[in-house]
Amino acid sequence: MKLGDPELVKKIGAATALEVRATGIPYVFAPCIAVCRDPRCGWCYKSYSEDHKVVEEMTDIILGLQGDIPSGSRKGVPYVGGKDKVAACAKHFVGDGGTARGISENNTVIDMHGLLSMYMPAYSDSIIKGVSTIMVSFSSWNGEKKHANHELVTGFLKNTLNVECGTTILGAINSTVDPSTEIVYRETPDGDFVKSNNFDYAIVVVGEPSYAETAGDSTTLT
Known about the structure:
Elements: H1 6-22, H2 52-57, H3 61-66, E1 89-93, E2 107-108, H4 112-119, H5 121-128, E3 133-136, E4 140-141, E5 144-145, H6 150-158, H7 169-176, H8 191-195, H9 212-215
Parallel strand pairs: 1-3, 2-4
Antiparallel strand pairs: 4-5
């Protein structure tokens, strides 16, 4: 094994996909393609490198998770290659590895040129390799939350990189099922609610607060 081994990480992606699909799950929240620039960050272990060129190479894990794009296929279109593969998720768009003092969900202070040259290339590579989804970061860019940054999400991710933006879990369900299917949404259903309705299927989404990502931050690390 060597540092920054795209061939190895592709094999790891393929093995991960096989094991995840064996559990019945078709989707993974990976890869994390953050370029972690400050080791005080509690989730710096998720980053492949502080060198963006190494991170770009390691996006080959997407080909392992989703499968190799067939020859002649159009670049930049999501692709999942069969029942032993999973949909991947490149995260966290973008610049989350450059937050001030390495604090999780903090502010990344950098101009557009720096953002594009340091943190954006791995996303371009991921899109070319057919990544199915992209997760936007909780952090901020020059004081503005990235989720609320129209220039960054709509202007660049959607209009420049041609990625469809704004899908929620509920929205994805609505667009997937037959139009005649009745969808009932309840944020915190209790047992009585579940028993009192003749549901055919249930989708349960469970959220959780940050733990290692934030609790692991160390501002005194030297």
